[in-house]
């Protein structure tokens, strides 16, 4: 069986080392927070100037001065700190975050990431912090469905969409398989309701089966 | 130092580059923007993380036809219809800057840095036309400072000299924009006597603040 | 996170570049330097604003013959006889860096900036061998990051995660050096529970601190 | 009569605009602080990370964590703020200080400053914050005796000592005259116990007499 979005988030959470400093971007990756063990010591960074971000704020907790990168109200955990935007992105760009998790339109066989623009001629370009996150964190994890609605794989030999960052993705978590982007190629780490042979057939890039398969 | 909002924004002239703090609505100097709309200066370049939400604030300034160009990281939001319409009609220029480069270019302006090599955007369409260089095996793009004629920011508490503290993630672009403009105007919720702010916790020293507006 | 001074400085290896906080004695991590002398690592490059005072601290490290090179802005002080003697005997290398470039190069290392154009030092002997460029009518020199293998700094209070606050002008190089080293060790006067530091006043977020020593 | 060091400091203090942000460097210029009117609103910056520096600390006020650029204990005034070294020099380099006051070995006719090294072959080079201050403040005031002990003028056609900064000095306060370095030359602003003619004779550069002489 392929994974639900919740199950994907749970699997990503499992792979985050205890005590890691992590940025969850916006959208689907923010679900990962729901599956982190409270005693994991994982500290969440939000690009708009905070370490130690807590769960979404509800009811009286909502404070317009305390939001995440998606501009949704959040809470503050003990041990948090606030800083301005240049310091926040210096923290990213300087390679201090352990893991950043982002969505993607496409990931290439060598870890190129495309997640900010479909390149449509009438699209209004908008990049936010994606390019900074892509090149800043020690490891970039991508969460996406493996196949687009038209059935085409989103793990591709070369991205056809405009790039967000070059050779920056280290892991790709999808609904049917998890991949590790490694120097000798893309390795299949785990599959969900699909065989490695079928993956190899449907994804148009060479795949290195996991040594544990 | 302490003035009304209309008096404060009278520093803005036609053709100015105006830095506007905020990330979404957090840290957005709404009352100063309203005063700027009243003031009437036009042909402005606005530097801000977003390009306005809904029909108020920055969006209203855009709707009033006062803005020639927007420099921002993320103009496209669910409620950015004012910008979207102007952009599609070819009535406004847009320079998209990755958020970290935007913050660092503003800091560079305030810090007297002539230009800097950033790893952000290498290999992407936003690298087009930029000077690139490999340093220590990694590729970088040369980025230049973004200076403002006027900065409009929102802080939490000021003392009467202009020292500022912020509140939570509303801090965002305020401290860097305050350093990057010839005239910095801060709207604050409260103004206290000099000596009431602990010198250890001041985020924006008074040297960067020219006008204070209490709202 | 919380360790003894000897345990903390065991991160330093022969040949390492060690960033040492402090401006004169303010912010100088004296106990960590003493532990480093005990530890015995040699062939070190020390990056610090000064090159030691009297016969203790940095001066004692130099006297013990552990330092190959000093990168600093101001080695010559009334009581810098240890450095003076080694330098005149040709037993230590010196790179003099203007204080602002020293701070900014450390910041660049922590901020992932590949290099930056600085106006400091143009037209002076310290410009020799540096790439220069005129930007917007002003001349600048290209300056590169200074990275440390280990940073030794002194702060005032830490929480158990490693968030730091400093005290008065003892803050100086601590916050930038903390960002610029692979391993940052902070000696502090007091360690409090997580949650006891106000998130608004944290100067060095815990992400930059690897080891804490209470002295 | 030529001026004492105290009188020079008093004259410099008189020329600092009310409310200015000022850096006094180390040594002789720090004496200027003694002559600032308490109600002048002048705020002192010290390169080691402080605005709002007060007078020297005495007795129980002495705190090893609170010093000036010369590493002497000082006090803190209401409205002070502390910041780290990169922020402190960004404040300088970014042109936010109104006035910086420094000593000098030599100042050239076009405002070049030499104050960090005599170029002696056995000297240990040490520059501190001088080069940053020289190019950072909106105005650089120099305080020095006009003539060296050997009688040679320290206001020179070209500096023979190694430079600290190029074309950065705007005013030169000496024991016998005050000069303004202007685009069309060095103007004599005021003299003390010496005639403009004698100045012109003894200083080897063309001098523009003040329009008010």
Domain module tally of chain A: 1
What is the CATH C level class of chain B, in words?
Alpha Beta
Instruction: Give the biggest sheet of chain B.
Output: 7 strands, parallel
Strand content of chain B: 25-35%
Shape of chain B: globular
- Give me the secondary-structure category of chain A: alpha/beta
Question: What's the number of domains of chain B?
Answer: 1
The total count of strands of chain B amounts to 13
| Spans of at least 5 consecutive residues with low confidence of chain A | none
Contiguous low-pLDDT stretches of chain B (5 residues minimum) are none
Number of helices of chain B: 6
Helix and strand element order of chain A: HEEEEHEEEHEEEEEHE
**What is the tally of beta strands of chain A?**
13
* Multimeric organization: heterotetramer
Distance between the termini of chain B: 15 Å
In CATH, the topology of chain A is named Glutaconate Coenzyme A-transferase
Large-scale geometry of chain A: globular
Spatial order of the strands forming the largest sheet of chain B:
4-3-2-1-8-11-13
CATH class of chain A: Alpha Beta
* Run of helices and strands of chain B: HEHEHEHEHEEEEEEHEEE
How would the blueprint of this fold be written?
The complex is a heterotetramer, with two copies of chain A (213 residues) and two copies of chain B (215 residues).
Chain A: H1 5-14, E1 21-23, E2 43-46, E3 50-56, E4 74-82, H2 85-93, E5 99-103, E6 106-108, E7 113-114, H3 130-136, E8 139-143, E9 155-156, E10 169-173, E11 177-182, E12 185-191, H4 196-202, E13 207-208
Parallel strand pairs in A: 1-2, 1-5, 5-8, 6-9, 8-10, 12-13
Antiparallel strand pairs in A: 2-3, 3-4, 6-7, 10-11, 11-12
Chain B: H1 5-9, E1 17-20, H2 30-39, E2 44-47, H3 58-63, E3 67-72, H4 81-88, E4 93-96, H5 99-111, E5 115-118, E6 132-135, E7 138-143, E8 148-154, E9 157-159, E10 164-165, H6 174-180, E11 181-188, E12 190-192, E13 211-214
Parallel strand pairs in B: 1-2, 1-8, 2-3, 3-4, 8-11, 9-12, 11-13
Antiparallel strand pairs in B: 5-7, 6-7, 9-10
Helix pairs in contact in B: 5-6
């Amino acid at each position: 069986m392929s994974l639900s979005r919740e199950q994907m988030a749970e699997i990503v959470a499992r792979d985050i080392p205890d005590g890691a400093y992590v940025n969850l971007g916006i959208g689907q990756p923010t679900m990962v927070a729901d599956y982190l063990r409270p005693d994991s010591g994982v500290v969440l960074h939000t690009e708009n100037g905070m370490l130690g971000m807590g769960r979404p704020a509800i009811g009286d907790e909502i404070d317009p001065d305390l939001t995440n990168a998606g501009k949704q109200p959040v809470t503050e955990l003990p041990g948090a700190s606030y800083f301005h935007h240049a310091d926040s992105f210096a923290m990213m760009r300087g390679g201090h975050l352990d893991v950043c998790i982002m969505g993607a339109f496409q990931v290439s066989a060598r870890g190129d990431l495309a997640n900010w623009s479909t390149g449509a001629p009438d699209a209004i370009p908008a990049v936010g912090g994606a390019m900074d996150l892509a090149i800043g964190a020690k490891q970039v994890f991508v969460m996406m469905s493996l196949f687009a609605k038209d059935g085409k794989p989103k793990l591709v030999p070369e991205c056809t969409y405009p790039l967000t960052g070059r050779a920056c993705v280290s892991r790709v978590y999808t609904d049917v398989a998890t991949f590790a982007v490694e120097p000798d190629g893309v390795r299949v780490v785990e599959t969900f309701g699909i065989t490695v042979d079928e993956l190899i057939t449907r994804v148009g890039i060479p795949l290195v089966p996991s040594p544990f398969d | 130092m302490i003035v009304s909002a209309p008096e404060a924004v009278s520093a803005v002239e036609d053709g100015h580059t105006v830095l506007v703090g905020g990330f979404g609505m957090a840290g957005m100097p709404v009352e100063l923007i309203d005063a700027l709309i009243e003031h009437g200066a036009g042909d402005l370049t606005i530097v801000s993380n977003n390009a306005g939400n809904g029909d108020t604030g920055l969006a209203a300034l855009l709707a009033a036809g006062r803005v020639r160009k927007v420099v921002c990281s993320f103009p496209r939001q669910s409620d950015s219809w004012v910008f979207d319409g102007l952009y599609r009609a070819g009535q406004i220029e847009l320079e998209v800057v990755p958020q970290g480069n935007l913050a660092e270019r503003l800091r560079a302006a305030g810090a007297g840095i002539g230009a800097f090599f950033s790893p952000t955007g290498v290999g992407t369409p936003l690298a087009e036309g930029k000077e690139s260089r490999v340093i220590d095996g990694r590729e970088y793009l040369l980025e230049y400072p973004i200076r403002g004629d006027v900065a409009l920011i929102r802080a939490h508490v000021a003392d009467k000299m202009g020292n500022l503290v912020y509140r939570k993630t509303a801090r965002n672009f305020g401290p860097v924009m305050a350093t990057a403009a010839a005239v910095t105007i801060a709207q604050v919720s409260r103004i206290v006597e000099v000596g009431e702010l602990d010198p250890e916790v001041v985020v924006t020293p008074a040297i960067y603040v020219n006008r204070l507006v209490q709202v």
